[in-house]
């Protein structure tokens, strides 16, 4: 599991690292700049992760077809994924256009709102390549091929950091664009990543993309894929929306708490990419096992995935708890921002283990084709428990911004227990392969 998950984890960390590097480099400009990038990425992430969840339907569809050695089924799934990515790109790009009035309506700091709107609009240029990259990444993962993914991620991140250095600070005669420069760099990096993954992975991708099959446009199987994918999309959104809503609540307390919140959220997001990558590997491996009708292997893969994913999160918990000031100081030169970030990191450390449990369990369930019930469990845990608890602790218990993070802890404990129990039950059942032929 470690060998198979490692390149997928690297890919997940690399994708998130672009936003973290943007935040760290913009953090040297001003607290307003880092808060603006924070808001823009929160808004962008809410939109993108819904689309990402929808495209994760490719995990069971393609991996089970690979396990069954059904090349036609693989091609149909991938081509429908491309069509979904194009449609999602149009919708998300339109949603990123209105900026000022939305963030003003949400009562975010007036000094931050105009900058946030500019950053969000520059991010539009990277939407299409990002969704297409997801389609090809999920396809290659399901096939057990990872080299193209790793190469594209490494090159994209190096390029993003270099372009940030040029465009944020204005080196080598380039204009100093500040936060907008980070968004431009990220969008360029995403086009480069798409080009590399297609070029490097063409030998594996070509049979799935050529010839283009007329049945890819057939409405009935497309609707069936959407019905399977929508619960995953809502599951992704339900989770990220809780963290986004927490950011909006913290924004009511000013730019410095919002900047500190964004730093800790970025760090928690980076560590989360490891169990997320392990969960993606588990989805592919479990899906292939289901495709060849080997449920015993699926159970072994699930145990291995939990061991790797949760084991890593134990290490992350120790790091967040033992070195909060040193970690926070890497992201900002502002003493107030560093101090607030350091106060949140031990709280974030508490939920790391439970975050790993729920994420890996969800990946295993996705590999079996179980998406609806996990979505409902997320709804109950994050929105039935998380949101009320965040608001109660922040305002009623008067814990202020810290109360939001204690609410995160409570919701993740509940979700982890629910998803683990669902996974244990599911792996005792007779699991059948998904079919989307007609």
Describe this structure in words.
- This protein has 438 residues and is mainly α.
- The chain has one domain (2-426).
- It is built from 17 helices and no strands.
- It has helices at 2-26, 31-55, 58-67, 71-95, 100-105, 113-123, 127-143, 147-169, 179-200, 202-209, 219-251, 255-291, 295-322, 324-329, 335-367, 372-396, 401-426.
- Helix 1 runs antiparallel to helix 9 (179-200), helix 8 (147-169) packs antiparallel against helix 9 and helix 11 (219-251) packs antiparallel against helix 17.
- It is globular.
* Radius of gyration, in angstroms, nearest whole number: 21 Å
Q: How widely separated are the two ends?
A: 34 Å
Structural class: mainly alpha
- Largest sheet composition: none
Please report which band the strand proportion falls in: under 5%, 5-15%, 15-25%, 25-35%, 35-45% or over 45%: under 5%
Q: Count of DSSP E strands? A: 0
**Number of discrete helical segments:** 17
Q: Mean pLDDT, nearest integer?
A: 88
The coarse overall form would be: globular
């Amino acid at each position: 599991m470690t060998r198979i998950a490692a390149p997928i984890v690297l890919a997940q960390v690399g994708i998130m690292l672009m936003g973290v590097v943007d935040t760290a480099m913009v953090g040297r400009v001003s607290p307003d700049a880092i808060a603006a990038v924070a808001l823009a990425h929160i808004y962008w992430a809410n939109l993108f992760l819904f689309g990402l969840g929808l495209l994760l339907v490719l995990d069971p569809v393609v991996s089970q077809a690979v396990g069954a050695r059904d090349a036609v089924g693989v091609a149909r799934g991938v081509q429908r994924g491309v069509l979904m990515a194009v449609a999602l790109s149009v919708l998300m790009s339109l949603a990123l256009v209105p900026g000022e009035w939305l963030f003003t309506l949400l009562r975010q700091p007036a000094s931050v709102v105009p900058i946030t709107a500019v950053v969000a609009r520059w991010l539009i240029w990277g939407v299409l390549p990002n969704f297409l990259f997801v389609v090809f990444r999920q396809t290659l993962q399901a096939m057990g091929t990872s080299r193209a993914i790793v190469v594209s991620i490494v090159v994209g991140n190096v390029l993003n950091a270099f372009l940030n250095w040029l465009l944020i600070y204005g080196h080598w005669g380039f204009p100093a664009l500040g936060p907008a420069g980070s968004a431009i760099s990220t969008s360029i990096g995403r086009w480069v990543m798409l080009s590399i993954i297609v070029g490097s992975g063409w030998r594996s991708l070509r049979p799935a993309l050529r010839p283009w099959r007329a049945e890819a446009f057939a409405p009935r199987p497309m609707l069936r894929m959407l019905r399977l994918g929508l619960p995953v999309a809502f599951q992704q959104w339900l989770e990220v929306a809780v963290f986004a809503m927490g950011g909006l609540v913290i924004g009511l307390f000013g730019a410095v708490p919002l900047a500190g919140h964004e730093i800790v959220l970025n760090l928690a997001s980076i560590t989360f990419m490891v169990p997320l990558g392990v969960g993606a590997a588990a989805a592919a491996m479990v899906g292939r096992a289901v495709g060849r009708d080997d449920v015993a292997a699926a159970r072994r893969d699930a145990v291995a995935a939990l061991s790797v994913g949760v084991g890593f999160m134990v290490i992350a918990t120790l790091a967040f708890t033992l070195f909060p000031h040193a970690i926070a100081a890497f992201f900002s030169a502002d003493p107030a921002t560093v101090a607030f970030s350091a106060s949140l990191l031990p709280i974030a450390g508490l939920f790391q283990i439970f975050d790993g449990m729920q994420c890996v369990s969800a990946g295993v369930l996705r590999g079996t084709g179980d998406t609806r019930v996990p979505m409902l469990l997320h709804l109950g845990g994050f929105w039935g428990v998380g949101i009320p608890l965040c608001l109660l602790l922040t305002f009623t218990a008067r814990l202020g911004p810290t109360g939001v993070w204690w609410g995160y802890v409570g919701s993740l404990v509940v979700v982890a227990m629910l998803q683990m129990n669902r996974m244990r039950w599911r792996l005792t059942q007779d699991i059948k392969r998904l079919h989307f032929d007609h």
